[in-house]
Every structure is written in structure tokens, then in C-alpha cells.
């Protein structure tokens, strides 16, 4: 995964809305293609509170997808994986991870990303950079320089193990020397041609990376990783609502489906929730002692910065475990690089408040069994 570019005549048109140029992202015509794998479904049993707050009665457990992203560089056809889902043999993680399965995390039987790639006819040795074991040692690993790389068994509590790194060429990104900053996030131009940027977004873990993939010269997919886990941590924000108004049927449904006992809005009346005047996202990042965010304060800062992309028409933000995307985001072999022309963003961003969507968590579930 190294990059190239060519120049393209830039036509400047007066625009009222923001564009990627306002984020400081340089113009380029070099692009990558983004394809999504749904590797597995998992459930965090009685652990919703470790991700998001508030947790309404009946929502103590939360199910979520594990997505992985295949990035292919347009010119060189070099490939990399961003996020890998979860390995099939969950007993082979480091003990600190295995001890959580299946008590805390239940992972449905599934195929490894390796098998999914092979089934899809993707040559594994063609993958230049990605993550962890199982890939041949021709695949390198790219991590933030502040990532905790201690491994089991040297460090008994480590979540990584020596076999994760063995034989792989490891590139540590040093953001202290990064010359680009987008929306306050330090960025590194991975292929050196403006097609794929890696961003420093600490919070979930130190060294946590996100990416901005340029899928057409003027549109981008933001790969948010674990910056947030539920769409309600990012939406709705006033700026977001201006550009992506809530569809009429969901606006109507949400009056009664979003509980005013738990969610406040200045325009709510007589128990009817008013999403239009909601001034902040519905959910907050868990800051409880057992939060899955190593540093919830830093995570919120990273989330706020990523949210500026969510509220911009040139960017489609996708996180790895967003259950509102299950069954709506096109999966491999389809590509999501055409998200703008297919209006994919408009079609999915409000799904999380639809009572029929698995992400819906805004009214209590009565346990009258
Ligand atoms: C995840 O769950 C959904 C809904 O039950 C199902 O359609 C899908 O096939 C599952 N995916 C995987 C990878 O298990
Ligand atoms: C989850 O919490 C419920 C209610 O407190 C309890 O009955 C159940 O055993 C818990 N499940 C697990 C796996 O801890
Ligand atoms: C897979 O890719 C590698 C490196 O690009 C190449 O050497 C090898 O011949 C490819 N194998 C197949 C089966 O296409
Ligand atoms: C490692 O685990 C031990 C025993 O559970 C615990 O006391 C210690 O605080 C842990 N250390 C770290 C760095 O998490
Ligand atoms: C990479 O893998 C090959 C084949 O498994 C092995 O022969 C070689 O020693 C490995 N190289 C490194 C640096 O681990
Ligand atoms: C490891 O990565 C560095 C930096 O990209 C590169 O210069 C070096 O050739 C790579 N080594 C191997 C064995 O792939």
C-alpha cells in the first residue's frame, strides 16, 4: 500500500456548505476502493454500560456486528485491511481476552476474515498491510507508535500475543511528526498521493487509528474503527440535522418511541420527544470504571472531531461495530465507494432511531415474561 497521483483540473464553484477542502484535505484524484466484510456477530452480555450510557431497562446486553474493511489502491492495486473482525478460534487469543469469552462476549460461529477473503478470490499475499496473525509474513502491520505492544506471555495481562507480531514487518506511525491535521486530527498520507490517510484518534486505546479513504476525487469514507460503537454516540447533532434531516416517518415515530423519561430535548412536550431540538447526541460514551474505552475523555475528543465529518456531505463515517448498519450496508464483493451517488449515507444515518432496527435502544423493554 503505497500511492500515486495525477492531476485533475479543479473547477471552483461557489458553495455554501462545507467541503473536504475546508478540512485541510489536499485535492487529489488518487483514490482507493472500500469494501466491507461482516465477519461476525457478537453480544456483550450485561455489558452495554461499558460502551454507552444511558442503558434503559431491558437493554443490558448489546449485540453488534464485527466489520472488516478491504482497501484497494486504485493505481497500484495494493491492498490492505482495516479492522479484521474477530478470529474464529476465540480460544486462541491471549488469556486476558479469552477469559471474556463467552461470559462477557458471546461470538456467534463464523468464518475468519482470512477465509472470507479466500472465498472472495482475494490472494492473501496480495495484502500489503493489515493486522495480526494468520496473514503470511509478507503482510505488514501498521500501528500507532503509542499502541501498547506488550504481548503475552511476557506480560500476563496483555491482550496481544507474540504470535500476532511474529515475522511481520511492523510500521509504527509517529504522529508527532505528522504535517497534516484534519479537523484537529493528526494525519499521515499513507500512499503519499492523498488517497488514504491514517489518523490518530486515541481513546478506545492509546494509538487507536482511524482512516480517511478517498473513494472519488471529492468524496471520502471515514473508517472510524472503535472511536464509537453506537450511532447514537455521534447523532443527532444540530449541524448534522441541518444536512441530513430526519425522515418524516422516523420523526413522527420518535415522538413516542424515544422515552422522555431518559432523553431530554427543549422542544419535547407532554411526553412527546422532539428530535429537532435535541442539542447533542442521544448517547454518551461510557465513563464508568469498567468502560471499554481506556480513556473516555480522550475518546470523546476523538469522537467530537470525527463527528464534524459525519455532518459533512463529502464524508461517510463508518465504525466497525455499528449495529444500525447490519443488513443495510452493502457487503463484499460490492463496494461502498459509490456511497454518494447511491445515497447510501442518507439511507442509513437515521436507521438507529427506527424501532425496527437492532440499534434501537431508546425506550425501556418491559420484562413481563
Ligand atoms: C449476523 O446476524 C444477522 C441477523 O441475524 C444475520 O443476517 C447475519 O448473517 C449474521 N452475520 C454473521 C457473519 O454471522
Ligand atoms: C445478566 O444480568 C441478569 C440480571 O442481573 C442476570 O440474571 C444474568 O445472570 C446476567 N448474565 C450474565 C451472563 O452475567
Ligand atoms: C498472489 O500474490 C503474490 C504477490 O502479489 C504473487 O506472487 C502470487 O503469484 C499470487 N498468487 C496467486 C495464486 O495468484
Ligand atoms: C494484571 O492483572 C493483575 C491480576 O489480575 C492485576 O492485579 C494487575 O493490576 C493487572 N495489571 C495491569 C497492568 O492491568
Ligand atoms: C516468513 O514465512 C516463511 C514461510 O512460512 C518462512 O520461511 C520465513 O522464515 C518467514 N520469515 C520471517 C522473517 O519470519
Ligand atoms: C519493512 O517496512 C519498511 C518500511 O516500509 C521497508 O522499508 C522494508 O523493506 C520492509 N521490510 C520487509 C522485510 O518487508
UniProtKB/TrEMBL annotation:
Gene3D superfamilies: Ribonuclease Z/Hydroxyacylglutathione hydrolase-like. Keywords: Hydrolase, Metal-binding, Signal, Zinc. It comes from the Eukaryota. GO terms for molecular function: hydrolase activity; metal ion binding. Residues 1-18 form the signal peptide. PANTHER family: METALLO-BETA-LACTAMASE DOMAIN-CONTAINING PROTEIN, QUORUM-QUENCHING LACTONASE YTNP-RELATED-RELATED. Belongs to the metallo-beta-lactamase superfamily. This is Metallo-beta-lactamase superfamily protein.
Amino acid at each position: 500500500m503505497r500511492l500515486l497521483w495525477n492531476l485533475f483540473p479543479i473547477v471552483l464553484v461557489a458553495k455554501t456548505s462545507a467541503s473536504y477542502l475546508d478540512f485541510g484535505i489536499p485535492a487529489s484524484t488518487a483514490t482507493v476502493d472500500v469494501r466491507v466484510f461482516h465477519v461476525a456477530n457478537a453480544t456483550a452480555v450485561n455489558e452495554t454500560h461499558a460502551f454507552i450510557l444511558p442503558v434503559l431497562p431491558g437493554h443490558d446486553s448489546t449485540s453488534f456486528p464485527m466489520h472488516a474493511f478491504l482497501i484497494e489502491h486504485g493505481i497500484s492495486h495494493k491492498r490492505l485491511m482495516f479492522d479484521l473482525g474477530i478470529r474464529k478460534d476465540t480460544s486462541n487469543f491471549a488469556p486476558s481476552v479469552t477469559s471474556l469469552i463467552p461470559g462477557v462476549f458471546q461470538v456467534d460461529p463464523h468464518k475468519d476474515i482470512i477465509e472470507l477473503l479466500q472465498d472472495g478470490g482475494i490472494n492473501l499475499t496480495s495484502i500489503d498491510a493489515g493486522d495480526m496473525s494468520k496473514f503470511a509474513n509478507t503482510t505488514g502491520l501498521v500501528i500507532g507508535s503509542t499502541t501498547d505492544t506488550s504481548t503475552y506471555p511476557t506480560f500476563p495481562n496483555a491482550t496481544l500475543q507474540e504470535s500476532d507480531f511474529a515475522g511481520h514487518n511492523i510500521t509504527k506511525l509517529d504522529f508527532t511528526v505528522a504535517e497534516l491535521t484534519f479537523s484537529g486530527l493528526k494525519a499521515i498520507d499513507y500512499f503519499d498521493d492523498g488517497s488514504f490517510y491514517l489518523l490518530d484518534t486515541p481513546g478506545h486505546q492509546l494509538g487507536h487509528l482511524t482512516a480517511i479513504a478517498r473513494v472519488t476525487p471529492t468524496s471520502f469514507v471515514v473508517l472510524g474503527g472503535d472511536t464509537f460503537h453506537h450511532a447514537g454516540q455521534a447523532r443527532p447533532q444540530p449541524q448534522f440535522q441541518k444536512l441530513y434531516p430526519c425522515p418524516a416517518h422516523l420523526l413522527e415515530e420518535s415522538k413516542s418511541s424515544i422515552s422522555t423519561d431518559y432523553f431530554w430535548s427543549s422542544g419535547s412536550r407532554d411526553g412527546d420527544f422532539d428530535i429537532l431540538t435535541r442539542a447533542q447526541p442521544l448517547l454518551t460514551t461510557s465513563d464508568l470504571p469498567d468502560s471499554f474505552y481506556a480513556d473516555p475523555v480522550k475518546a470523546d475528543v476523538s469522537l467530537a472531531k470525527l463527528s464534524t465529518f459525519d455532518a459533512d456531505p463529502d464524508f461517510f463515517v463508518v465504525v466497525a461495530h455499528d449495529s444500525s448498519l447490519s443488513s443495510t450496508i452493502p457487503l463484499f464483493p460490492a463496494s461502498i465507494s459509490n456511497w454518494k451517488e447511491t445515497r447510501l449515507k442518507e439511507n442509513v444515518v437515521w436507521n438507529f432511531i427506527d424501532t425496527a432496527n437492532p440499534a434501537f435502544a431508546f425506550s425501556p423493554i418491559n420484562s413481563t415474561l
